[in-house]
């Protein structure tokens, strides 16, 4: 099977400081990769390099496109990459306001992404938006409300609906449950897990929360100082960590 994404030797420097270095991995269709590590370990830098939000200094991010097969997305033109970002790729930000248009209604936020891929039929767009609100457990009655009137958990669910409505094949998620209350996090995680399985999504999830990867990720990469220090199946890495840093990460959670 061809990997959906092949990451080869990604490197990003901020002046003399290493953001991330020598990161390589393959992601297969339907697979969820978790990236964990403490603050400053390079998780967000890596995710933003992969998604093309940050320019990498070295490496390749090869995506198996529908039209042309494997293509290095870092060599794509800006319009090509933007189109990918609207169709086969999606990006869920930690702060919903970074991924939503706060002055546009909930239905409009979902509909906008459909229009960006060429849907023009108002009735269809509204019906699909309402369907997606239901799928992320937001009442149809809220379709004309702006996200500013939503709780943090609802905003995050709306951001997820906006991202998934076009049926992407690869979703990048940056701390998707960060900053939410514990009970809200649990509900969101359940929802995400259901959607990922149902849609057969591939995803790359950055988090410092090992419970998130335990629940969502098939595989795990542990980062420290911009490098991947350990990688493997999630349960294997968490239950039998080999690297001293992973052991510390796992044991510090158990002690809480
Ligand atoms: N814009 C920037 N300019 C300079 N250095 C940066 C910049 N962004 C990140 N860094 C540095 O790159 C390294 C990796 O940071 P990064 O934000 O990717 O880590 P992280 O694991 O995502 O942390 P957090 O969980 O706190 O977001 C750190 O040393 C950080 O100080």
How would you describe what is shown here?
There is one protein chain. With 256 residues, this protein is of the alpha/beta class. The chain has a domain at 5-100 and 170-252: Rossmann fold (3-Layer(aba) Sandwich). It has 10 helices and 10 strands. It has helices at residues 43-50, 78-86, 96-99, 106-116, 122-135, 152-164, 182-199, 210-216, 234-239, 244-255, and strands at residues 5-14, 17-27, 32-36, 58-65, 69-72, 89-92, 170-174, 202-206, 219-224, 227-233. Strands 6-7-8-3-9-10 form a 6-stranded mixed sheet, sandwiched between helices. Strands 2-1-4-5 form a 4-stranded antiparallel sheet, with helices on one face. A hairpin with a 3-residue loop joins β4 (58-65) and β5. α5 packs across α6 (152-164) and α6 runs parallel beside α7. The longest helix has 18 residues, at 182-199. The mean pLDDT is 93. Residues 14, 17, 19, 37, 39-45, 208 line the site of adenosine-5'-triphosphate (ATP). Adenosine-5'-triphosphate is lined by residues 14, 17, 19, 37, 39-45, 208. Residues 5-250 form the ABC transporter domain. InterPro entries: AAA+_ATPase, ABC_transporter-like_ATP-bd, ABC_transporter-like_CS, P-loop_NTPase, PhnK. This is Putative phosphonates utilization ATP-binding protein PhnK.
């Amino acid at each position: 099977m061809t990997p959906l994404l092949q990451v080869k030797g990604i490197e990003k420097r901020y002046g003399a400081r290493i953001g991330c270095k020598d990161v390589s991995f393959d992601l297969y269709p339907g697979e969820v990769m978790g990236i964990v590590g403490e603050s400053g370990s390079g998780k967000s830098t890596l995710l933003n390099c992969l998604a093309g939000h940050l320019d990498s200094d070295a490496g390749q991010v090869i995506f198996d496109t529908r039209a042309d097969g494997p293509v290095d997305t870092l060599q794509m033109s800006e319009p090509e990459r933007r189109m990918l970002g609207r169709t086969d790729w999606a990006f869920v930000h930690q702060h919903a306001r970074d991924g939503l248009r706060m002055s546009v209604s909930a239905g409009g936020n979902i509909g906008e992404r459909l229009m960006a891929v060429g849907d023009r039929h108002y009735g269809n767009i509204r019906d699909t938006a309402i369907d997606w609100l239901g799928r992320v457990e937001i009442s149809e009655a809220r379709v004309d409300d702006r996200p500013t009137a939503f709780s943090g958990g609802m905003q995050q669910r709306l951001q997820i609906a906006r991202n998934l409505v076009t049926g992407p094949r690869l979703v990048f998620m940056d701390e998707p449950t960060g900053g939410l209350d514990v009970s809200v996090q649990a509900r969101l995680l359940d929802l995400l897990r259901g959607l990922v399985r149902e849609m057969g999504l591939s995803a790359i999830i950055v988090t410092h929360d090992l419970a998130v990867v335990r629940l969502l990720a098939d595989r795990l990469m542990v980062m420290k100082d911009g490098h991947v220090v350990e990688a493997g199946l999630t349960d294997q890495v968490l239950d039998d960590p080999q690297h001293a840093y992973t052991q510390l990460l796992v044991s510090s959670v158990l002690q809480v």
